[in-house]
């Protein structure tokens, strides 16, 4: 279904809102679309949300494109340093300069989502940064259990590509990963909080013979299952033997990243990792806060407008996570002994085989 280019009202409305940003908060307004928002500038975003849901997310599904949009926002923003000398942060450079940044080794496979987003972005008047980070918030909202992410509107156009070697890789050591996060302004706990995204993620290029291999047994639900399953004793590799960046997985059809496993076992991060398990509200709040910080890296937030109310409200996840069938606490590789391990039931039946994420 073709869409005409969205009108320039985006830039006009944003400029008007920014000129009055220091004034008292505006009263809620009803947009021409019928939506209600706290700021008139945000009205121009509702058609973009509809466009994303229709053309990118297959009618608001928590599928491969939603997972990849979230990954793209991280890879876009993390190429930044609080000390300067690196990229522009959450500026959309990974979309605007996609031919450069998708060639980086750490961005392997991300060209699928940049190729999918680029023509849709061209139908809008949004900056690349606003588009990338709005798409991440909207796609994440399609996943039951996810928090409703914040969205700040008004990023300027990116000036240049981010440099290479600024994105942590699965083969990196814990020290290297935490140092890169610290350079971007994130604590070890915030780094682990951002990894909650792996609950709805999949690997495409760690083992190219099995694209779309998920990291937990519930890849379409934003739950804490990934934090549990990373701790289970490994049994086999899901694809063509051992590949750089993976370790033995506990379940057939599931991949366990080396970086996730070593972070789950390291004394600097093990207790916070374990604290996420079967702790849905805590995991959601920690992820939401870390993402709010990530999605404005390098931006002057005084010049941005809070348009979080354009982001759809995710469906809740209210169940208790469970051990996969045939697993129990005896299979957990516990690395944090300062906290009690949660009491978790086991799914009845034989151990499952996890199918790949469709569309990969």
From TrEMBL:
One of its GO terms (cellular component) is extracellular region. The record marks 71 as: Transition state stabilizer. Its main location: secreted. Its EC number is 1.11.1.-. Heme b binds at residue 198. Binds 1 heme b (iron(II)-protoporphyrin IX) group per subunit. It is an enzyme of class 1 (oxidoreductase). It is found in: Secreted. The active site is at residue 75. PANTHER family: CATALASE-PEROXIDASE, THYLAKOID LUMENAL 29 KDA PROTEIN, CHLOROPLASTIC-RELATED. This is Peroxidase. It comes from Psilocybe cubensis (Psychedelic mushroom). The lineage of its organism: Eukaryota, Fungi, Dikarya, Basidiomycota, Agaricomycotina.
